[in-house]
Amino acid sequence: xxxxxxxxxxxxxxxxxxxxxxxxxxxxxxxxxxxxxxxxxxxxxxxxxxxxxxxxxxxxxxxxxxxxxxxxxxxxxxxxxxxxxxxxxxxxxxxxxxxxxxxxxxxxxxxxxxxxxxxxxxxxxxxxxxxxxxxxxxxxxxxxxxxxxxxxxxxxxxxxxxxxxxxxxxxxxxxxxxxxxxxxxxxxxxxxxxxxxxxxxxxxxxxxxxxxxxxxxxxxxxxxxxxxxxxxxxxxxxxxxxxxxxxxxxxxxxxxxxxxxxxxxxxxxxxxxxxxxxxxxxxxxxxxxxxxxxxxxxxxxxxxxxxxxxxxxxxxxxxxxxxxx
Length: 325
Description:
By secondary structure, the chain is α/β, with parallel strands linked by helices.
């Protein structure tokens, strides 16, 4: 990693990017790296394709994040001027929407830090581990690899903790290892307040969000016990009826997995441009291939996502044909 140390040392302008619909791991890992590079006196910017949920805005530095879809001209100038461009928590340019073409033609050195499968070759340097629970944990390891662990502080530790916590389902997914817990312990020693972080992320619900959760579970959950499957499908109208905001369905797909005997859960949410599909599973039921082969997506073996340009009804029919055969 000596070459990477030199690349960072010689760069003045650095941009950090992450995927569309940024989640806790995307924002946490990006801000952790942001705080590290600021200590190295770099001109650093975090640019995301679109907005991120309110329950992530509490993190230090979140108010400095630039949304590409709202500030395209500014974002493009920063990307064009960057000597180094970090790609965090995504491994294909189609995961960053319209920003993809800008990153592709940018002349800066591209560095990917990611934990997803099926990496697309668009960077010059890769720090990838598909067995790792989160990109945030990889950022922690990256900081050690470039010999900057002495710069770890409360702000960085808090952001990394948030990223690991959210991408492991509060440390309950199989990807959570003993090493993950050792890292978490170190982050707490460095000042990360675990109870506070949990409250900021999980105890900031609006009344509308809880009502949507109740409606989805009581009225929209379809359970197929013989197939160990459950799915929830929400139309755009239904979402709007509960004053939907980005992040309001975060974690909803996990609830059916708590039903005894259910091994796969699917959430379909209608957007203006199509249907977003989230898959979760357990007990050696792998969903990444389903997402990749049928819905142009991908992810991890137990957590994946996809998209359908069909109507909600047609997408449900397609899903049932695939999973109930």
